[in-house]
Each structure stands twice: as structure tokens, then as C-alpha cells.
């Protein structure tokens, strides 16, 4: 089955975890990598859905694929789980917040004391939840899952351990400490590792060109499986 016959689910952007009505925890993801991947997916697939966290809406205007906006990591988890089908490809370029405040205050927290401590609790890991569902549900056996790894040190070791821990078919490592790579830029530098131990290096290039290269690699991997 080629990509033309598969649904491609792409996630992008950050998530937002509210502390009180005016403050939140988030990160510097712009959603550009996700949009570039969704554009590249739309060019090769019969059905593309882009699920994104809070981002600049002008990056989304006129896009011809289905778009779902979410806010928190728990919302993103629910939206991703709701889209999974057996033959689908899931590309997780979003940067979900790993922690959220244990409690959200309904009132604005006043700056009365010199120090303020906020207890955080761990958010669900979306890719690990997908892996558990895939293992438990035979109808999802053909799901192809691609993760990203945003690392600043020991980059390959962390990426390879995420590939294994999250039971991914492929991981795209961006060393976000490198100039021109990672968050908010129009360019990226990525190394792709596959489940079978293959490595493919993408030097500095636009996120648009990179996204097309990643989709080509996914198509090649799926083709190899089908043979
Ligand atoms: O949006 P841009 O400004 O264009 O920037 C692009 C990017 C740097 C955000 C993107 O290329 C990228 O690296 N996305 C993944 C960021 C991230 O969350 O990395 P991580 O190493 O913390 O997570 C590893 C993988 O697990 C990712 O696929 C992530 O989507 C996923 N994850 C993370 C947390 C969580 N609770 N559940 C997850 O599934």
C-alpha cells in the first residue's frame, strides 16, 4: 500500500498548560516543521490531517488538508488517538509540554510573596500511549510511527533510546543546539534513524525540503516492508 492510499496524521507546534487565567507553561515550537510535513504529506497522500497546538494562524491559512487545533498535551493525546487507523502514518513533530501544573488556579495568582512554587505533574507520553494501543489492538498493526527528538547533548544516544522506548519505526533527530536547527527557524538539520538500524543525514536545509525528504524516506520504508 503506497502513501497515496494511507492517511497521514501530522502533529506540530507546542502545547500550553495553564497555571492561572493569564499564565501558562509552553515552549518555543512555532509549528513550522509540522506545517512543512503536513504540506509534504498532502502532496503524496490521499488524506492528511494536521493536529497542532497554539501557533500563528497565518501559517495555516489556505491549507487544503484537515486541521484540528488543540491546547494541552492531554488534548493532543485525545486528538491523536481519535485519528489512528491501521494503515495510517503518524508523524509526531509537535513539542508537547512534558509537565503541567498540578492545579490550575481559577483566579490570577497575586505577586504577594517573594517566591512562588508551582507543583508540576507529568503529562502522558503520547507516543508511548500509541505504542501500547498498537500492541493491544491487532487492527493497528500496520500503523507506521515517526517521532522527532529535540536534543541539546548526547544527541544520538538520546534519539536511539527514544526510538526503542517509544517503539518507533523512525526517529528524526534535530540537535537544537546547532545554528539553523530546531525551534522557530525556517531551516533544520536532521538525522533519521530507522527501526532496522539505518541512518540518513539531512544537512542544513529548509524545513520544506526536509519534509519532502522525510516523506520520501517513509515511502521507501513502507515499500521495503510491503515487498
Ligand atoms: O515547530 P518548530 O519551531 O518548527 O520546531 C520544530 C521542532 C524542533 C519542535 C521539531 O522538529 C521537533 O523536534 N519536535 C519534537 C519536539 C519534542 O517534543 O521532542 P522530545 O525529544 O521531547 O520528544 C520526543 C518525541 O516524543 C517527539 O516526537 C514528541 O512529539 C513526542 N512526545 C513528547 C512528549 C510527550 N508528552 N509525548 C510525546 O509523544
Mind sketching the topology for me?
Elements (H helix, E strand, L loop, with lengths): L6 E6 L4 E4 L2 E3 L6 H13 L2 E6 L13 E4 L3 H11 L5 E4 L6 E3 L18 E3 L3 H11 L7 E8 L3 H11 L4 E6 L11 E8 L4 E8 H20 L1
Parallel strand pairs: 1-4, 1-6, 4-5, 6-9, 9-10
Antiparallel strand pairs: 2-3, 7-8, 10-11, 11-12
Helix pairs in contact: 1-5
The structure holds ligand PMT.
Ligand PMT binds next to helix 1, helix 3 and strand 9.
Short description:
The protein is of the alpha/beta class. 29% of the residues lie in helices and 28% in strands.
Shape: globular
Please compute the radius of gyration using only Cα atoms. Answer: 18 Å
Biggest sheet, open or closed, and with what strands and sense? 8 strands, mixed
What portion of residues belong to β-strands?
25-35%
* Spatial sequence of strands, sheet with the most strands: 5-4-1-6-9-10-11-12
**Number of beta strands:** 12
Small-molecule binders here are: ligand PMT
Return the string of H and E elements.
Answer: EEEHEEHEEEHEHEEEH
> Mean pLDDT, rounded to whole units?
96
| Main structural class | alpha/beta
SS summary, helix count: 5
Low-confidence stretches: none
Helix content: 25-40%
How does this structure look, described?
The protein has 227 residues and is of the alpha/beta class. Helices cover 29% and strands 28% of the residues. The protein has helices spanning 32-44, 73-83, 126-136, 155-165, 207-226, and strands at 7-12, 17-20, 23-25, 47-52, 66-69, 89-92, 99-101, 120-122, 144-151, 170-175, 187-194, 199-206. The strands form three sheets. The chain has an eight-stranded mixed beta sheet, with helices on both faces. Strand 9 (144-151), helix 4 and strand 10 form a beta-alpha-beta unit. The longest helix has 20 residues, at 207-226. The model has no long low-confidence stretch (mean pLDDT 96). Ligand PMT is lined by residues 12-13, 29-34, 73, 92-96, 98, 123, 125-127, 147-150, 162, 174, 176, 182-184.
Amino acid at each position: 500500500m503506497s502513501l497515496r492510499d494511507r492517511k497521514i496524521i501530522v502533529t506540530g507546534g507546542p502545547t500550553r498548560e495553564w497555571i492561572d487565567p493569564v499564565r501558562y507553561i509552553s515552549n518555543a515550537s512555532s509549528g513550522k516543521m509540522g506545517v512543512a510535513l503536513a504540506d509534504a504529506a498532502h502532496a503524496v497522500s490521499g488524506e492528511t490531517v494536521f493536529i497542532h497546538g497554539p501557533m500563528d494562524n497565518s501559517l495555516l491559512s489556505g491549507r487544503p488538508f484537515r486541521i484540528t487545533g488543540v491546547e494541552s498535551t492531554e488534548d493532543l493525546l485525545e486528538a491523536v488517538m481519535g485519528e489512528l487507523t491501521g494503515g495510517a502514518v503518524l508523524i509526531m513533530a509537535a513539542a508537547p509540554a512534558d509537565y503541567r501544573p498540578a492545579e490550575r488556579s481559577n483566579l490570577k495568582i497575586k505577586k504577594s510573596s517573594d517566591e512562588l512554587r508551582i507543583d508540576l505533574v507529568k503529562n502522558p507520553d503520547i507516543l508511548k500511549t500509541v505504542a501500547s494501543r498498537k500492541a493491544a489492538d491487532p487492527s493497528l498493526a500496520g500503523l507506521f510511527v515517526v517521532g522527532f527528538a529535540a536534543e541539546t547533548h548526547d544527541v544520538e544516544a538520546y534519539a536511539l533510546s527514544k526510538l526503542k522506548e517509544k517503539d518507533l519505526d523512525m526517529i528524526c533527530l534535530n540537535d537544537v543546539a546547532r545554528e539553523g536547527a530546531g525551534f522557530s527557524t525556517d531551516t533544520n538539520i536532521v538525522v533519521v534513524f530507522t527501526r532496522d538500524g539505518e541512518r540518513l543525514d539531512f544537512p542544513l536545509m529548509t524545513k520544506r525540503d526536509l519534509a519532502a525528504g522525510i516523506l520520501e524516506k517513509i515511502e521507501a520504508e513502507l515499500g521495503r516492508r510491503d515487498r
